């Protein structure tokens, strides 16, 4: 969940309104796939968002249009192509977020002007085989200052959060949709403040506990606050995570499947804005004393993700006398944080990092970086237990890229999504880090056959982001064959290990082993 991107999305949206895309790690050649255009080029578009289900099906959402800016949705089945984007909102929609469950149900949220500076938060849904519903407002007529957010809990509950002006003060607000139901009334989570709370970030664990974090003005400075919604639907009392006395903002949060939750933010220490982290072991636990993750860097944005017992934090900041750089630190399963390291090239400004982790603990981070002429989208990957690899350019070197967003599926394939600008038009694009081998849906290997009988072996498989290059069968008797469907005759009785290796175009492999018992006639 990219907290920085969504804040940047809002800023860009307001400026425009005022002016107008499972195998374990260790495959052979996980690589970034070339960028793909998502739909046609538009006269007006800026940034969007993307989500994937556990199987790698993807949905992208971005506001665009030739003459009137509407929210556009595009879908990509795993192994397929992006669909032609279709408008799903009225004019003026901006600041999108989207989630998709494993049944194909998509929930989208965005803001849209409702006269003057007032805005509505709107939601729409779509099933795998159905049409988009007519957008409905969750909150109306507020001059919203931070874009809405969504999180999908196990079982299908969706929690939305945003900022609104209510009863003479600013509040962090939420609404919840139970599985198969509709969103309930908006409820304030925070006490009122004179200025708008920061972007509300959300995280969910495997049990369904949802944690919200935000920054709130309490008078002389901002603090980081949090509340957690239990599986029973009850929000906890308010927790203040940052130490009082200095400004704290740019909060992000991530939960590990078992319930360990980590929040990361930037807090002023009198000299610099320092990246800090606090962790809670389960929804009923206490938040730890904040730990400094960065040194001598003025941090202005953060993101955090977790998987397989590891939590990866990223942030953008300015070292003394240097351009912006993206840095990272990792919390090991034993609770120890690593030393912060830069993961972007420090020669030119790098901003707006977004990070995800897969169930095996591999991390994928994206950001935008100035190349001396334009901003380019970049990506870097960190294998579980290792260091980040060198960053790779995802976007063209002659087109200006807006901040990228990243999502990851259960197999570990990650998809980055961004919008870039040329001399005339803007284009939504995606690039994927192809980490996983092909997924097998049907494998037909007989348990028994007869000596001398011509026996059929077949497989149905697809790769999320690459074409399948080869199917190689070894029959355990020294024979082998190639192809999706093959035939083999055993010359003698016995038990034989049949091995199938499927390789995609970039070298990722999936292996399956079965045993065949060959009987006499």
From TrEMBL:
Domain PKD intervals: 438-521
InterPro entries: Ig-like_fold (IPR013783), PKD/Chitinase_dom (IPR022409), PKD_dom (IPR000601), PKD_dom_sf (IPR035986)
Biological process (GO), any one: carbohydrate metabolic process
CDD domains reported in the protein's UniProt record: PKD
PROSITE patterns: PKD
UniProt key word Disulfide bond: no
SUPFAM superfamilies with a match to the protein in the record: PKD domain (SSF49299)
Signal peptide residues on this chain, from the entry's feature table: 1-28
Keywords recorded for this protein, A-Z: Signal
Tree of life domain: Bacteria
Protein name per UniProt: PKD domain-containing protein
Lineage of the species this protein comes from: Bacteria, Bacillati, Actinomycetota, Actinomycetes, Propionibacteriales
């Amino acid at each position: 969940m990219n907290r920085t991107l969504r804040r940047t999305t809002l800023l860009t949206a307001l400026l425009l309104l005022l002016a107008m895309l499972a195998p374990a790690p260790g495959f052979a050649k996980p690589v970034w796939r070339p960028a793909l255009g998502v739909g046609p080029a538009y006269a007006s578009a800026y940034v969007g968002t993307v989500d994937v289900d556990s199987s790698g099906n993807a949905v992208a959402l971005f506001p665009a249009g030739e003459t009137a800016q509407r929210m556009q949705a595009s879908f990509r089945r795993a192994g397929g192509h992006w669909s032609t984007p279709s408008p799903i909102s009225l004019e003026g929609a901006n600041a999108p977020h989207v989630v998709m469950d494993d049944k194909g149900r998509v929930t989208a949220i965005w803001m849209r002007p409702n006269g003057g500076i007032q805005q509505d938060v709107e939601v729409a849904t779509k099933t795998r085989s159905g049409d988009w519903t007519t957008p409905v407002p969750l909150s109306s007529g507020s001059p919203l200052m931070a874009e809405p957010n969504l999180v999908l809990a196990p079982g299908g509950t969706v929690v939305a959060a945003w900022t609104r002006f209510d009863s003479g003060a600013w509040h962090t607000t939420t609404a919840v949709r139970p599985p198969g139901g509709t969103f309930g009334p908006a409820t304030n989570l925070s006490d009122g403040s004179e200025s708008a709370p920061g972007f509300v970030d959300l995280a969910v664990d495997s049990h369904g506990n949802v944690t919200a974090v935000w920054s709130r003005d309490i008078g002389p400075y901002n603090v980081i606050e949090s509340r957690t919604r239990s599986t029973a639907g009850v929000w906890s009392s308010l927790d203040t995570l940052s130490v009082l006395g200095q400004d704290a903002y740019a909060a992000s949060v991530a939960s590990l499947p078992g319930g360990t939750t980590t929040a990361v933010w930037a807090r002023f220490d009198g000299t610099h804005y320092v990246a800090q982290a606090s962790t809670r072991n389960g929804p009923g636990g206490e938040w730890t004393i904040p730990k400094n993750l960065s040194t001598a860097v003025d941090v202005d944005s953060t993101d955090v993700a977790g998987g397989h017992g590891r939590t990866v934090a990223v942030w953008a900041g300015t070292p003394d006398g240097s351009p912006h750089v993206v840095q990272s630190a990792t919390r090991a399963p034993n609770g120890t944080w690593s030393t912060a390291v830069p993961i972007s090239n420090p020669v030119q400004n790098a901003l707006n990092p977004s990070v995800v982790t897969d169930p095996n603990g591999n991390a994928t981070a994206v950001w935008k970086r100035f190349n001396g002429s334009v901003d380019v989208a970049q990506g870097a990957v960190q294998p579980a237990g290792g260091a980040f690899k060198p960053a790779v350019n995802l976007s063209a070197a002659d087109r200006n890229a807006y901040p990228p967003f990243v999502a990851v599926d259960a197999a570990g394939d990650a998809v980055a999504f961004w919008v870039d600008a040329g001399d005339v038009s803007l284009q939504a694009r995606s690039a994927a880090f192809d980490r996983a081998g092909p997924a097998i849906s049907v494998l037909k290997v007989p348990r028994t056959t007869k000596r001398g009988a011509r026996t059929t072996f077949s497989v149905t498989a697809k790769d999320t982001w690459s074409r399948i290059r080869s199917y190689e069968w070894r029959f355990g008797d020294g024979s082998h064959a190639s192809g999706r469907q093959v035939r083999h005759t055993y010359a003698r009785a016995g038990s034989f290990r049949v091995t199938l290796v499927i390789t995609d175009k970039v070298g990722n492999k999936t292996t399956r082993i079965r045993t065949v018992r060959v009987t006499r006639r």
